[in-house]
Amino acid sequence: MMALSEHEKKTLEQIAQELERDDPKFAAKMRSTPGHPKSRHTAFGIFAAVVGCLVLLTGVAARTPALGIIGFTIMGAGAYLATRRFGSPQIRWRPSSSQSMGPAELG
Description:
With 107 residues, the protein is mostly helical. The chain is 64% helix and 7% strand. The chain has a domain at 36-86. It contains 4 helices and 2 strands. It has a two-stranded antiparallel ribbon. The protein starts with 5 loop residues before the first helix and ends with a strand. The model has no long low-confidence stretch (mean pLDDT 79). This is Membrane protein YphA (DoxX/SURF4 family).
């Protein structure tokens, strides 16, 4: 890996300052550290779903309904955890001239 020159470091610093000034919300997201809790939950959920699937298949192969039910439960819980959105989405309502009102934007 090659180190950055002083000119490149200064240029990157200027870009970061402009980004912070133009879009502070996006800049804050970009500063977040890797290994975000959301990604850990997703990774654990995928792992649990795979393990649950293996337990389910083992239960089917062994003709043990209890083991199949346990495997299905683990697989379902893992899939739920992997796909769950942590935190509530921000819903902004906009006035509408029609009778029905609905969410304008999810974010």
